[in-house]
Amino acid sequence: MSLPTHTYKPAIDGLRAIAVLGVIIFHLDFIDLLPGGFTGVDLFFVISGYVISQSLWERRNLTFGRYLKDFYRRRLLRIMPALLTVLCVSFIASAMFMPQFWLSELIHSTGIAAFFGLSNVVLAWNTDTYFSPSTELNPYLHTWSLGVEEQFYVIFPALFYLWLRYRRHTPIAWVALPLMAVVSLIVGAWQVEAAPLSAFYLLPGRFWELAVGAILFQLIGTRAVTPHLCRLAPTLLAIGLGLVVTGFLFADPSRFPFPWAVVTVAGAVAMIAGTVLRADSPPSAVQRVLQNPLAAYVGRLSYSLYLWHWPVAVFLRWTTGLEWLVVQLLYPLLVIALAAASYHWIETPIRSGQSMVQRNAWLTFVTGAMATTLLWLSALWVTQNTSTLSLSQTRDTYTWYAYRHYPQEDIDTLDDPSLQGRQLFVIGDSHTAAYRTLLKLVSLRLGIQVVEYEEGGCSVVSLIGPDPARCANTREAQLKQIEEQAKPGDIVFLASLRMPELNGREWRNGEAATVDEALSELTADNLSAARSAADTLLSRLQGAQFNVLIDAPKPVFKAAPNRCSDWFNRMNPVCAPGLTMARDQLERLRAPQMQLLQQLQADYPALYAWDPLPLLCPGPTCSAYDESAKPLFFDTNHLSGHGNRVLEPSFTAALLKIWGVTPPLTE
């Protein structure tokens, strides 16, 4: 019998290699080999719990204060330098290549929080899951797992120290961590249904995965290895590998982390145990593969590989696209090069350096805090000054963005007594924000008060389906505020997307076939629900003696101008469908909505319609750009700042007509 050795075990790095490669393969659009490869993170969690426990065990003779200082000194030197480097590079690259768009606020918030190990909290507050298409453009998404680990490190060292001190005399020292792990597992299982984002991203539902690794060390890392356990090790390794592969192939994202994380965690426990219990005996076949020099080297690179693989994929996805073979061949070379540079030039020198700053815990903490704060402030500056660094046409924010600037042009005001005290209330989805330039111009030109209520994804009288049920409470609160503030005769402008979106569809069969497909999705039930939602709201607003203005469906496009107008992204396959659309096809696409709108106007005298399409598309071909090559649209369906200025005279005329005011003659 012998104690397990705590010397470096290359097979553990081999496990890290499996984990990181599983995650990377899962994240690549052009490889669909491991649909459950995201469970590599769970493998990382167990390994981390075991290795951290081993490291703390080796310092068991230190006093509590020195024990904590040494732990956090080593963790800071291990984690922060490479992380800060990746975050700073990502913020700069984002500003250079990715225009500010509807996801930018979440992206910036995630990155800013990642400096302090809190990106998982930000993501848990979001409405999209880890597997949503929107997350593909967030270069900081992967830092959620680092947040979980860093939060685990806040409480775990003290727990482990209590076990170190009292394990021989107090049974509860052995019970505390397993009990917390069981509670965490129960919390995670409950949250899968009740709060799936919290279950996936937050520590309470993930604590058990790291704790299991620590418990494994407590059970086998300090005890003698018997011949029986040594003989059992190869079987454990094989079973563990089978469980890990099962997770990689079959894990269901909708049932995660419970029960599917249990499969990968069990596999990780078995593989670590099989590696450790083999002690100094000849390795099994699986272990020989794991401790192969190449596998071990990839494992040592795993932290840097994990840090770099995702932002590189995001920036390629935004610019060139990942569909090109040359990009697919370039991607792994680029990631490996960055990871190797990070490991050899940042991770290793800083972690193993012998300077006073690196050896003295307090100097390490102070220097780390100063560096993190300085770089965090720099990242904040970048988020607020993206146009300064941007290489995109969208750096001309006055032309592209509908909500950035006070008008630069001279404004002819209309001083009409009948407009005194008039108010315009605007309520709708993100298209309310996309009208901000127009609304500001109207407010200044007519001297009226404009009050905006907007909620992304919360359309109001969409004409193509029911108003979203998840927005009911917000919408009701907004309507009550309007009813409290508005006076009879005021106008309520309903601004929402009222056309089926065209981006992301297949166009190989031509526009007509794709429009037919989109029209087929607009069922009789959809139209009935749309009519019902419209009746409910319009009868309420008309009963309050308000005028109601609704914008008829505007053009929608196959690709986004903000993503397809620069030298570094025009070749992206998402841009291949182009930035034009035949007007007759758009007229066909919006015909059901226009018919319903006409019926509503006949039933509600207070309802007026304003149609922007003729101004945005004066000819047989609708383009996202006008004749002067200025963008009318920012993306596939939201107006640009320039598009707002094109529409403002028409919108102003519509308001004046409702209020019975004769517009001034123009020369």
Fold and architecture overview:
The chain is mostly helical and 667 residues long. It folds into 2 domains: 10-385, no CATH class; 422-659, 3-Layer(aba) Sandwich (Rossmann fold). Helices cover 59% and strands 5% of the residues. The protein contains 27 helices and 7 strands. The chain has helices at residues 10-27, 40-57, 64-97, 104-114, 119-125, 144-166, 172-194, 196-201, 207-221, 227-250, 260-277, 285-290, 293-300, 302-318, 325-352, 356-359, 361-384, 386-389, 397-400, 430-433, 436-446, 472-485, 511-520, 524-543, 583-603, 613-616, 641-659; strands spanning 423-428, 449-454, 491-495, 547-551, 580-582, 607-610, 621-623. The strands form 2 sheets. A 5-stranded parallel β-sheet has the order 2-1-3-4-6, sandwiched between helices. The chain is elongated, with a radius of gyration of 30 Å. The model has no long low-confidence stretch (mean pLDDT 94).
Give the arrangement of secondary structure elements:
Layout: H1 10-27, H2 40-57, H3 64-97, H4 104-114, H5 119-125, H6 144-166, H7 172-194, H8 196-201, H9 207-221, H10 227-250, H11 260-277, H12 285-290, H13 293-300, H14 302-318, H15 325-352, H16 356-359, H17 361-384, H18 386-389, H19 397-400, E1 423-428, H20 430-433, H21 436-446, E2 449-454, H22 472-485, E3 491-495, H23 511-520, H24 524-543, E4 547-551, E5 580-582, H25 583-603, E6 607-610, H26 613-616, E7 621-623, H27 641-659
Parallel strand pairs: 1-2, 1-3, 3-4, 4-6
Antiparallel strand pairs: 5-7
Helix pairs in contact: 1-2, 1-13, 1-14, 2-6, 2-9, 2-11, 3-6, 3-14, 3-15, 3-17, 4-5, 5-6, 6-7, 7-9, 9-11, 10-11, 14-15, 21-27, 23-25
